Fold Acyl-CoA dehydrogenase.
Amino acid sequence: MIRDQDTLDQLLATLSRFVRERLVPNEERIAGDDSIPPAIVAEMKELGLFGLSIPEEYGGLGLTMEEEVLCAFEIGQTAPAFRSIFGTNNGIGSQGIVMDGTEEQKRRYLPRLATGEMIASFALTEPDAGSDAASLRTTARRDGDHYVVNGTKRFITNAPEASIFTLMARTDPRDKGAGGISAFIVEADSPGLSLGRIDRKMGQQGAHTCDVILDDVRVPAANIIGGVEGRGFKTAMKVLDRGRLHISATCVGISERLIRDSVRYAAERVQFGKPIGEFQLVQAMLADSRTEAYAARCMVLDAARRKDQGLNVSTEAACCKLFASEAVGRIADRAVQIHGGAGYMADHGIERFYRDVRLFRIYEGTTQIQQLVIARNMLKDMA
Ligand code: COS
């Protein structure tokens, strides 16, 4: 749903200019430095990028899902590490509070997340609980008006920058499945909370992940999201449904960027006496990429509109994540191929995207988990 086309068009034009003029020229630098310059982060705050999806009454832009994916199509046109720094405040870090938090929790945290004063991370994954999220082992034992939390969270995006964690822990040790899990807001400066070393990754340099270690961390009972035990797994799943749409939109943006770079190269690069874009085998690669990016864009927009209508889009979000993340992998592969030797060389930046996009098929649910979600929902609908 688009609330006001003119306002949205202005926002999209601003984002497009910001990406083109400020982010694209810094892609290589952030990959080399493994950090985003503070001046760029300050500009992102100024533009409201940390609060795109946070409701207006808490200081955000309160974008609808359709508006948000249109923004992600623009923001996706550059290195994904830029998106990562404000991505968790709009997605998996904040949405648990937006969707299921109490009024007090929303008022306490959302305004500072919307401005970027605080960064929120999502802490679900553990060393022994990845795809099987419901098997997580971090415990939260009630002790008076606090919970005592113990465990280790792994690969947590933005953990080194985070002020708060939306953290899933088991409050009912007798229930080993989803029903025993609760979601907490854990402040990063809580005594007993420490961070592992920053992970070295295949790509997306500039975006940071690390372990979060909880050793008898006392969390106020008032920080259980929604104030009720046992609902944390469902909160996490709802957050991921939404996050998967945003990631899919980012995949579309990157696909379109890589196609543009590939078309330009194919038009300029001359071999056998003419631009390589005139050869049908190169044209086939361009056409396949364009077709897949277009399909992904249509899927994401359709699913976002359905979500804005209040429909359950668990299946559609999984379809989008599955298709768009696999498609951007193929598109990045073809982009390397079209660029030939230049595509493999770091100076042209194409191989960096090839490495960066590999993550999309893994995080916020692997391709295989999306397949499982889709097929399970199909069988449930039939029953
Ligand atoms: N929205 C709301 N509730 C949901 C839901 C959704 N999308 N998906 C599941 N639930 C509910 C179920 O309805 C069920 O509730 P009831 O017990 O009341 O019926 C409960 O949650 C447990 O669901 P289910 O039995 O399907 O859980 P499973 O353990 O079988 O696991 C998958 C489900 C595999 C889908 C889940 O573990 C998953 O998404 N794994 C991937 C995790 C992931 O994406 N990790 C990335 C880390 S964050 S970057």
Remarks:
- The chain has three domains: 5-115, 120-230, 234-382.
- The first helix runs from residue 5 to 23.
- The chain has a mean pLDDT of 97.
- The first strand starts at residue 120 and ends at 123.
